Amino acid sequence: MLLALPSIGDPRFERAAILICGHGPDGALGIGLDSVVPNLGFHRLVEQLGIDPGVAPDAPVHRGGPVEPGRGFVVHGLDWGGADTVEVAGRYALTGTIDVLRAICSGRGPTRWIAALGYAGWDGGQLEDELTGAAWFSTPATDTLLFDTEAAIRWRASFEVAGIDPRLLAVGSGTA
After folding, report:
1. Which CATH number is 2-164's, of 3.40.50.1910, 3.60.120.10, 3.20.20.70, 3.40.1740.10?
2. What is the reported pTM?
3. CA distance 34 to 51
4. Average pLDDT over residues 37-43
């Protein structure tokens, strides 16, 4: 599930598009896919970790969220898995260990992937409350939205997938 944020008044989540990667009674974890870290490509990231970029494309690195912004994650297809890879909704996977970076650089990693720093997290029941309060709009995650859509337009595209023109969204409501 991809969550798009109409507005909750928090600038960290303005026009957010977050892939929910884990959800349970104790809380939820998502990876933000709506913006990239300026001046940081994949090559520079792996070089900082002492890894030769090898055959990896110099893809942008996304701002995964405000929690632990120095911690890296890779959202990827199910064609690769490591010891700490977690399956996401039976369609995608999330890996937060360095082995996925080495595999991508050597050409043995997942064919489709997104690198991110940080994550968004919710305590138990918090995300459900926000969904009930209409803070988030939920749309199905698709390969096109995740892997083929630029970060800068992913928020808008997530609404358009559901047939909604986000230009028509209102932040508040009136009284009658």
Report:
1. 3.40.1740.10
2. 0.90
3. 26
4. 97
